[in-house]
Specification:
Blueprint: H1 3-9, H2 11-57
Helix pairs in contact: 1-2
Keywords: Coiled coil
């Protein structure tokens, strides 16, 4: 049975399967995105500290 035949015979099951596949393949990307957001916040915090230190030394 080809994919197209399967989609025609079982449209709901096919969509549910696609949803699960999408969730599991995008889940690691979501974790990476959350880590990058945390790192970005940390970077901005450190840059602000450096800027303050530089301003105090001038």
């Amino acid at each position: 049975m080809s994919d197209e035949d399967y989609k025609k015979l079982h449209p709901i099951l096919n969509e549910v399967t696609q949803t699960y596949v999408s969730l599991y393949t995008n889940r690691p990307n979501e974790k990476n995105r959350e880590q990058l957001i945390k790192l970005e916040a940390l970077l901005h915090e450190k840059l602000e500290q450096l800027k303050k230190a530089r301003d105090e030394n001038e």
